[in-house]
Amino acid sequence: MDSDSPADLRAEWTRLAALAARPGAHDIRVLFAGDPGRAVRFSTRLDDLTLDWSKTAIDDAARDALFGLARKAGLERFRNRLFGGALVNATEGRAAMHMALRGPADAGLLAGAEDASGLAAAERARMQRFVAAVHDGTLRGVTGQRFQAVLNIGIGGSDLGPRMVAEALTMTDGGVMAAHYLSNVDGHAFAALARRLNPATTLVLVASKTFTTQETMANAAAARAWLAAALGEAAVGAHFAALSTNHAAAAAFGIAAERVFGFRDWVGGRYSLWSAVGLSIALAGGWDTFQALLDGAWAMDCHFRDTPLEANLPVILGLVGVWHVNALGYRAQAILPYDARLHRFAAHLQQLEMESNGKSVLLDGGSVGTATCPVIFGEPGTDAQHSFMQLIHQGTSVIPVDFLLAAQADHGRDGAHRILAANAFAQAEALLAGKTRAQVEAEMRAAGADDAAVAAVAPHRVFPGNRPSTTILFRRLDAFTLGRLVALYEHKVAVQGCLWGINSFDQWGVELGKVLASGVLKELEGGPAGVHDGSTAALMARFAALR
Ligand code: F6P
Predict the structure, then answer these.
(1) DSSP-derived secondary structure letter, 4
(2) Measured in angstroms, how far is the CA atom of residue 483 from the centroid of ligand 1?
(3) Is ligand 1 within 6 A of the CB of residue 348?
(4) Number of domain units in the chain
(5) Within this chain, do residues 342 and 247 fall inside the same structural domain, yes or no?
(6) Using CA atoms, how far apart are residues 376 and 325, in angstroms rounded to an integer?
(7) Residue among 94, 153, 182, 209 whose CB has most ligand 1 atoms within 8 A, to mutate
(8) Which atom of ligand 1 lies at the shortest distance from residue 157's CA?
(9) Ligand 1, closest atom to CA 158?
(10) Scanning 15, 62, 271, 451, which has the fewest C-beta atoms within 10 Å of its C-beta?
(11) SS3 of 401, please?
(12) What are phi and psi of 292, to 5 degrees?
């Protein structure tokens, strides 16, 4: 195990709790009233990208305590170990070196003893040649037709990241090629795609780090049968490619070595969109777009690696989250990109954050004494305003929000973009300001309401306010900036994992369900009955009766 014992942070956690318990300490409005420079002092920039964290209850004392906690937790040392290729994923004995995938060939990043930068660049060059050959028609389907569409079959990190990015970056202009994504083993998903796709012009990518994931293998088999039925078994070789660390399994599936694009086990699934798993992004959006995405992420890597904690965006975003979860006890976090192109951004962050930091065991095997990852959820604004924002404004739980917004749109209708931006700013302002009973009553009386109406309705129209948010504002949502944003959240997750003393890079919690599912499947296929709790046994019997 390549890790230190977690530092004893009890004094730091106690200090944070005491700061949060000060009378009036949560009143963000009071902080603004007492400090005209607050918005500037609690905003941090990297070029055009601004993180405004002033609409939180963090004051100077809380900020100092948070940075003190980070230092005591060894964040700077952790950062050095991460970028030094140490085996930070201690339970699997692996480095977490996804940064090498986006840096230049000569960045010199190692994963253990391996030249991660060199390996990543070599594989990137293979991918680039493949993409060029598909785009210029050198590589065609078995009937001689050019590929018109790419179908990426994968799940979790082999789906969420590439899907989110490809959809974001091709929404504006349609991209170079259509990209489709198949993740769910539910046969309805493939049936719907099969109706829309032409096998003769479809390139199928089987994206699976392990090449053993049940859902992906089942979907890949379905796609293979579909292609073979339409074009003959020989078509498989011409229409499939694999994105995997498991070259032997890809070969056994019938995919030739030159069509297997690889990466190493130091790339976690939820960090793999930058690797061969991102091939569908490059096919859909073009190579230059994919390269710009990598460049943006690398810019954020360098910022995270080289910038002092106090000016470091991922560190600050991570500390704001720690303040909310650990000092104030908020157990959920909403992600609201005001950008329709980012409609899968929260879905990607759900896996990134909750699979990484949804842990309750310390690196040394002990139990965590603090809360860890909150529930992450979200939707683009303004859609979110018409679904769950009611609860965030007036519910009994306080749920901090991350707003994301581009200053410039790419659709040419600036009026629409101003409406969008106005809503983003207004939501954050409403969460902070709220509306008092006196304001509501005055409004109602001005509109002619009588005493009875005021008494009956006014309480329902009060907004408590003082609800925290952060805003991430940038010039444009281009590939470079999307790369910066995803890497910002990746490193935020690493920062929080360090502070909580957990391993952000394993995911043992998904294993038990997988194992049980294969036993249950055998039973559903007619095998002998297993031992189940009463509810599961009854449901399986009812399922059988209904078929
Ligand atoms: O959900 C568990 C998990 O292992 C994820 O971490 C991963 O992204 C996903 O399954 C898919 O795994 P693979 O790429 O190996 O098919």
Answers:
(1) P
(2) 21
(3) no
(4) 3
(5) no
(6) 12
(7) 209
(8) 8
(9) 14
(10) 451
(11) strand
(12) -65, -35
What token pair was written down for 280? 């569908």
Output the domain CATH number for residue 205: 3.40.50.10490
Q: Does residue 59 sit in the same domain as residue 153?
A: no
Q: How far is the CA of 209 from the centre of ligand 1 (A)?
A: 7
Distance CA 361, CA 508 (A): 11
Q: What is the reported pLDDT for 469?
A: 98
Q: Pseudo-torsion of CA 139, 145, 147, 153, nearest 10°?
A: -100
Asked whether residue 497 is domain-assigned, the answer is: yes
The mean pLDDT values, 10 residues at a time, for the chain of 547 residues are 65 96 90 96 98 98 98 98 97 98 97 96 98 98 98 98 98 96 98 98 98 97 97 95 97 95 98 98 98 98 98 98 97 98 98 98 95 98 97 98 98 97 98 98 98 98 98 98 99 98 96 91 93 96 95
Is 275 close to ligand 1, i.e. is its CB under 6 Å away?
no
The reported pTM is 0.97
Q: How far apart are CA 178 and CA 196, in angstroms?
A: 12
In the three-class reduction of DSSP (H, G, I as helix; E, B as strand; rest coil), residue 27 is classed as: coil
Which ligand 1 atom lies nearest to the CA of residue 216?
Answer: 16
352 and 477 housed in the same domain: yes
Question: What integer pLDDT is reported at residue 14 of this predicted model?
Answer: 96
CA of 245 to the centre of ligand 1 (A): 12
Residues 113 and 165 in one domain: yes
Which domain does 126 fall in, by range? 98-292
Pocket flag, ligand 1, residue 208 (CB < 6 Å): yes
- Yes or no: say if 230 and 197 are a contact pair by the CB < 8 Å rule: no
Amino acid, single-letter form, for residue 65 = A
CA 158 to centroid of ligand 1, rounded, Å: 7
What is the token pair recorded at 366? 């002990």
Separation of 204 CA from ligand 1 center, angstroms? Answer: 19
| Positive or negative torsion for Cα 283, 289, 295, 297 | negative
The neighbour count for residue 173, using CB atoms within 10 Å, is: 10
Assess whether the C-beta atom of 156 lies below 6 angstroms from ligand 1. Answer: yes
Q: Same domain for 498 and 515?
A: no
Q: For ligand 1, atom 8, name the residue with the nearest CA.
A: 157
Q: What is the DSSP annotation of 469-526?
A: EEEEEEEE--HHHHHHHHHHHHHHHHHHHHHHT--TT--GGGHHHHHHHHHHHHHHTT
158 lines ligand 1 (CB under 6 A): yes
Residue with CA closest to ligand 1 atom 9: 156
49 DSSP β-pair partners: 46
What local confidence, expressed as pLDDT, does residue 2 receive?
41
Which residue numbers are catalytic? 355, 386, 514
What is the predicted pLDDT for the residue at 1? 38
- Residue-level pLDDT at 97: 98
Q: Is the CB of 350 under 6 A from ligand 1?
A: no
Is 541 found in the same domain as 476? no
Q: How far is CA 92 from the centre of its chain?
A: 22
Please classify residue 10 by burial: count the beta carbons closer than 10 Å to its beta carbon, then call 0-12 exposed, 13-18 middle and 19+ buried.
exposed
Considering the domain boundaries, does residue 520 fall inside one? yes
Cβ 213 under 6 angstroms from ligand 1: yes
Let me know whether 287 and 318 are in one domain: no
